[in-house]
């Protein structure tokens, strides 16, 4: 089977085991169904996800010009505490920013290698946790806008990391922790403006990833440097494909790359 198209992040569905899909213009691949098969990936060219021109991808699937100008790539996306739509202040496009920022957001704890704190829109749970490769996660507060979530995250970063160690996550060098207990410990450090939004009772969500064999050591595939790769797919975790030889491919990190994929037997 042969597919060709521009890569975008994998879509997911939470079931007993997460289901992963690569979406093409008129077709899709359910990756769970091709575990154990040999696949090849061939990088053809770039295609910016915004302007669709053949320009080198800078970040998040966008060329440099788009990344520097479109509202989807404003600084508040990565740093939620910089959100200003609740003050009626425009960054790049106030209407867009109001739609994105003025909606329920959740600050959570997710354990993918070590416990980290993060922010996401309510509608992105559990997608965000799956994309990070968290095998367990729990909500801390649910607030009415992105700014409040951002300042809560900043305050909690003094007590818990905000980074994932992706090597540990991909080799499954992880611990099971009692996140409800961790959450309780952080309660006192939530900023005053967000205290009232603490979720009184919340249960941990457990996530199982479709990985048949974890590598002992990982090496990353960067299509910009190595345009062709072939290997046996052994699993999918976070936004990574994991191959038998320890190669890992970050699909989200290659958004905007036009590729050809061949699936063998
Ligand atoms: Zn562009």
Integer average pLDDT: 96
Cα distance spanning the termini = 9 Å
What is the total tally of β strands?
Answer: 16
Shape: globular
Largest β sheet strand count, sense and barrel closure: 7 strands, mixed
Helix- and strand-based class?
alpha+beta
Uncertain runs with pLDDT below 50, 5 residues or more?
Answer: none
Helix share, percent: 10-25%
The value of Rg in angstroms is: 19 Å
As for the number of domains, it is 2
Strand fraction equals 25-35%
- Helix-strand pattern, N to C? EEEEEEEHHHEEHEHHHHEEEEEE
Which distinct ligands sit in these coordinates? zinc ion
Strand order of the largest sheet: 1-16-5-13-14-15-12
What count of helical segments does DSSP give?
A: 8
InterPro entries: DUF2797
Protein name: DUF2797 domain-containing protein
Pfam families: DUF2797
Explain this structure.
With 265 residues, this protein is an alpha+beta fold. 19% of the residues lie in helices and 31% in strands. The chain has two domains: 2-66 and 211-263, no CATH class; 74-206, no CATH class. It has a seven-stranded mixed sheet with strand order 1-16-5-13-14-15-12. The model has no long low-confidence stretch (mean pLDDT 96). The chain is globular and about 55 Å long. It binds zinc ion. Zinc ion binds next to strand 7 and helix 1. This is DUF2797 domain-containing protein. InterPro entries: DUF2797 (IPR021246). It comes from Christiangramia salexigens.
Quick recap of the structure?
This is DUF2797 domain-containing protein. The chain has helices at residues 64-67, 75-78, 94-101, 127-132, 146-156, 166-171, 179-186, 192-195, and strands at residues 2-6, 11-13, 19-24, 27-30, 38-46, 57-59, 62-63, 105-111, 115-121, 136-143, 205-206, 219-220, 228-237, 240-243, 247-250, 257-263. With 265 residues, it is an alpha+beta fold.
């Amino acid at each position: 089977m042969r597919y060709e198209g521009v890569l975008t992040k994998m879509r997911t569905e939470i079931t007993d085991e997460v289901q992963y899909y690569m979406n093409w213009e008129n077709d899709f691949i359910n990756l769970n169904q091709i575990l154990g098969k040999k696949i090849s990936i061939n990088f053809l060219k770039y295609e910016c996800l915004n302007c669709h021109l053949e320009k080198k991808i800078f970040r998040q699937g966008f060329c440099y010009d788009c990344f520097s100008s479109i509202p989807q790539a404003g600084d508040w996306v990565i740093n939620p505490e910089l959100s200003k739509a609740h003050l009626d202040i425009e960054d790049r496009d106030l209407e867009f920013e109001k739609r994105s920022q003025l909606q329920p957001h959740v600050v959570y704890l997710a354990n993918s290698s070590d416990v980290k704190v993060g922010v996401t829109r309510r509608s992105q749970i559990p997608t965000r946790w799956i994309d990070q490769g968290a095998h367990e996660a729990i909500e801390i507060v649910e607030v009415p806008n992105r700014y409040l979530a951002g300042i809560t995250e900043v305050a909690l970063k003094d007590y818990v990391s905000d980074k994932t160690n992706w090597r540990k996550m991909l080799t499954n060098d992880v611990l099971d922790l009692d996140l409800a207990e961790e959450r309780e410990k952080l309660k006192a450090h939530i900023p005053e403006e967000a205290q009232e939004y603490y979720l009184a009772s919340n249960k941990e969500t457990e996530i199982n990833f479709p990985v048949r064999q974890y590598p002992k050591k990982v090496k990353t595939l960067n299509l910009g440097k190595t345009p062709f790769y072939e290997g046996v797919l052994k699993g999918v975790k976070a936004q990574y494909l994991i191959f038998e030889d320890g190669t890992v491919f970050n699909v989200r990190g290659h958004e905007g790359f036009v590729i050809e994929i061949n699936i063998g037997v």
